[in-house]
Write a structure and sequence with these properties.
The protein is α+β, with helices and mostly antiparallel strands. It is 31% helix and 22% strand. It has helices at 2-37, 157-172, 199-207, 219-230, 254-263, 276-285, 300-317, 330-342; strands spanning 101-109, 123-127, 130-132, 134-139, 145-151, 179-185, 189-196, 237-243, 267-273, 290-291, 297-298, 345-349, 360-367, 377-378, 384-385, 387-390, 394-396.
Length: 402
């Protein structure tokens, strides 16, 4: 009760105080507004002189505003000079990828002796019957990059022994700058040694061939895999195949491996047949059949067909086919292969048909004299010497990735 009466008596006083304070505030605000709107008189005591704005180029003090300088008007750049026109040159340019065909040519006498000293003018190259102009030509002894592909299956100890002896003979013919890989095959290929310049590594890879695992000799699959791996290696490559030539269980057929060989460039195949001796024995002794391994009958006709296929592989790639009759012939054969590889003539030309349309182009290489007639080669006694030219039979015109 006491508190309610006290609050009621204070109401008029509180209203008075509120109106008084409001009047003071209004008077004060009006005075300040009037002071701001009044013009400043120079020389009035207590009033500061107004500073001009800072000049362009930066603040006049540490806390002043930053004024961006006015952009100077620069004269426009002179137009670029037109290139001087060369008389006889058109005003446009065309970039064309012109294919280059490389052909390695081996020229030997009938007994296998290399024929040196031939010049560029002694070679005539034609593609699908059209003469080509040779642009690059050289003959020099160079290191080789080769794969030794060895058949090693449960066939016959005689074949296995010949394969190993042939492999060792090839390793002995290598030089210090040569690159060689060793691959064996039966049902599938096995990389025994990747590319190396160490003869001891090659011997070590061949020493692994002791106990064969399968009776199948899938030559087509192994050769296709080898050629496929060589596609990623630049330069000239060689495949030395030591084999009976018999294919027993490949997924690929003869037509497919022939197509692969035709489409492969810069690879030369040198087959060495180790089935010739048995075929020759059967031909002279009247063999009616032979078990190529366990339960796989192979006749002398099969070995004859195998040799014909190997010979075709060599011709298509510019290599040479070998048929050793005795084990003692192997060292000489591999010396010949090394000589063939290192002493070839290298020819290059831009084909008159530049289309890379995937067609197969047939090549023909001939030796001609100064008058264009067939070249005659004579020995030291002045007698005419018969010679043979080995070069790939053609190539597939396609885009390649180097």
């Amino acid at each position: 009760m006491f508190s309610t009466a006290y609050q009621h008596n204070l109401h008029p006083f509180r209203r008075y105080i509120s109106f008084a304070l409001l009047g003071i505030t209004l008077v004060t605000s009006a005075g300040l507004l009037a002071q701001d709107q009044a013009p400043a008189q120079p020389g009035t005591p207590g009033q500061q002189k107004q500073e001009p704005p800072p000049a362009a180029g930066g603040p006049q003090s540490d806390t002043g505003p930053y004024a961006i300088p006015k952009k100077k008007e620069e004269p426009p750049l002179p137009p670029p000079e037109k290139p001087k026109k060369v008389e006889g040159m058109p005003d446009y340019s065309i970039k064309v990828d012109v294919p280059l065909v490389n052909v390695d040519v081996l020229v030997t006498t009938k007994n296998g002796q290399f024929v040196p000293g031939l010049k560029q003018g002694n070679f005539r190259v034609s593609e699908d019957g059209a003469a080509q102009t040779i642009t690059n030509f050289n003959q020099s002894e160079a290191p080789i990059t080769a794969v030794l592909l060895v058949e090693f299956a449960s066939t016959n100890y005689y074949f296995m022994r010949d394969a190993l002896n042939a492999g060792y003979a090839f390793a002995n013919s290598l030089k210090k700058d040569d690159w060689v890989a060793v691959v064996s095959y039966d049902m599938k290929p096995y990389i025994l040694v990747d590319f190396t310049q160490d003869k001891r590594a090659v011997y070590g890879g061949l020493n692994q061939l002791r106990i064969p695992g399968f009776t199948e000799t899938n030559l087509f699959d192994a050769l296709y895999d080898t050629l496929d791996r060589l596609d990623g290696i630049q330069g000239r490559k060689y495949v030395v195949v030591i084999t009976t030539g018999v294919d027993t269980f490949s997924k690929l057929n003869l037509d497919q491996i022939m197509k692969k060989i035709k489409s492969t460039r810069d690879v030369t195949i040198f087959p060495v047949s180790i089935g010739w001796a048995l075929r020759n024995y059967c031909e002279t002794h009247g063999c009616t059949g032979y078990s190529h391994g366990v339960g796989i009958p192979i006749t002398n006709m099969d070995y004859l067909q195998a040799d014909n296929q190997l010979n075709a592989f060599a011709r298509m790639t510019g290599g040479r086919f070998y048929q050793p009759r005795f084990q003692g012939e192997l060292p000489e054969i591999f010396r010949d292969i090394g000589s063939d590889i290192r002493n070839q003539y290298s020819i290059a030309y831009h084909p008159t048909n530049p289309k890379l349309d995937g067609t197969y182009r047939k090549l023909k290489v001939e030796l001609v004299g100064p008058d264009g007639s067939p070249l005659k080669i004579r020995d030291q006694k002045g007698k005419d010497v018969k010679y043979q030219i080995m070069a790939r039979e053609g190539y597939t015109a396609k885009h390649t990735v180097e």
